[in-house]
Write a structure and sequence with these properties.
Helix content is 72%, strand content 2%. It has a domain at 3-125 and 180-249 and 351-409. The chain contains 16 helices and two strands.
Length: 423
């Protein structure tokens, strides 16, 4: 086992995914999460220092986008509400289920990134077989848990969490059979981080709303899951052993990934959230809304076009450097930030503090990429330690119980927030 130092790299990935995930709150669903996930994947590649990873930056970004984006199908609005319950059973249930949902985001996102980094010429990941098994696992899980047993996390809304749960189990089974221990470690730590981030973020939201803090506390929760999930994924990657040289991506692989990450996902975000009709409906209370919506839509299209063209220009190269990855990362993150400003009414004079904090985060990330420090020693591992991880899970469940007790002690009845009736 080789001892190395890490620290600032994990912080950069955590802040990158956190900022993008907070922005994702303006768009939601799978496409918004996928854009954020791609940004987190690119951040990983930037700080890795691995030249062979630079050439696979779009494949890593695509894996992260698909994994983190898949969780976007999960409905969790009502589960967030359970965290505001005035009794322990329902508050603990809310925090616990948010740990499960956030964990599923991280499990799939971290797992697919780990598999991408672990694929070599001699031991390639059989993606067709893996995705088929994940699909079947999701269907079986949903049918068994929802249709047969009737375990419904968030009725009457979608129970798509069961699909992600089954897909995640199938992915872990594939990893175990293939002895891809490093990928399992990334999946676990990203799962742990995502789960902690979502549940703790909900706790902060309860405190913020109870104490009437004049800030978007929902956005705080979103930032929290991104920060903790990014921390877990980055730590899992940088504390694991990887092949010394992973094969270059073929031209068709790179360009296919580029098409999905840079063109397809942003176009879906545009179609679902940024067209004239969507912006006009969202900002209908502003005066002169027709002009504002038209200007916003035009500017969004111009920025998207500039983003695509600038990244395509860099893809003419045969070899990618860290500067190329960094440029792609900042172009996508800045464009995503602009979309958030546009959809919330910047061209109508509407500006919000949380959006300015996105910009501050981008500046800090840029500064950290050019700084040294905040290092701590760690040991590269390729071992799976189920007993230790089980202990971590029990510790987290215990901490969530304490947080639930604190949450119900700071407020009274906030309306019907119960999953289970309390007489």
């Amino acid at each position: 086992m080789k001892t190395k130092k890490i620290g600032i790299q994990v912080l950069i990935v955590a802040m990158s995914l956190a900022t993008a995930w907070a922005i994702r709150g303006q768009f939601g669903h799978e496409q918004g999460a996928a854009w954020a996930g791609a940004i987190g994947g690119l951040a990983l590649v930037i700080v890795s220092g691995r030249k062979d990873w630079y050439n696979k930056m779009m494949l890593v970004a695509l894996a992260s986008a698909i994994g983190w984006g898949a969780g976007g199908m999960i409905s969790y609005g009502r589960v967030v509400g359970y965290g505001f319950a005035d009794n322990f059973v329902n508050a603990y249930y809310g925090l616990g289920m948010l740990f499960v949902i956030g964990g599923l985001f991280g499990l799939l996102g971290g797992g697919l990134v780990g598999l991408t980094l672990d694929s070599t010429k001699e031991n390639r990941v059989r993606w067709g077989a893996l995705l088929s098994q994940m699909t079947v696992g999701g269907i079986i899980s949903y049918y068994f848990l929802i249709e047969q047993i009737g375990f419904k996390m968030t009725p009457p809304r979608s129970e798509a969490w069961a699909l992600c749960f089954g897909a995640g189990l199938a992915m872990l089974w594939y990893m175990a059979r293939e002895k891809r221990n490093s990928a399992i470690r990334v999946a676990f730590y990203a799962m742990l981080g995502g789960g902690i981030g979502f549940s703790f973020g909900n706790f902060l939201q309860v405190l913020g709303n109870t104490w009437q803090i004049p800030f978007n506390m929902w956005n705080v929760m979103e930032y929290c899951i991104g920060f903790c999930g990014g921390t877990g994924m980055a730590y899992g990657v940088f504390s694991s052993k990887w092949p010394k040289e992973i094969p270059r991506a073929t031209k068709w692989e790179n360009w296919s990934a580029l098409f999905i990450v840079v063109l397809f996902i942003p176009l879906i975000v545009y179609r679902e959230s940024l067209t004239y009709a969507h912006i006009a409906k969202r900002l209908e209370k502003l005066p002169n809304i027709e002009s504002i919506a038209s200007t916003s839509t035009i500017m969004v299209l111009l920025v998207l076009l500039a983003m695509v063209l600038s990244i395509l220009f860099r893809f003419k190269k045969e070899e990618f450097s860290q500067k190329d990855v960094m440029a792609t990362f900042f172009i996508m993150l800045i464009a995503y930030t602009f979309m958030s400003y546009a959809v919330t009414g910047i061209f109508g004079g509407e500006m919000h503090l949380n959006h300015h904090l996105y910009v501050l985060n981008i500046i800090l990330i840029f500064a950290l990429l050019h700084a040294n420090g905040f290092q701590f020693p760690y040991v590269e591992m390729d071992k799976v330690t189920p007993k230790r991880w089980l202990a971590y899970l029990f510790i987290v469940l215990g901490v969530l119980a304490i947080l639930a007790l604190i949450a119900i002690s700071v407020h009274g009845d906030m309306g019907d927030r119960d999953r289970f009736p309390m007489d």
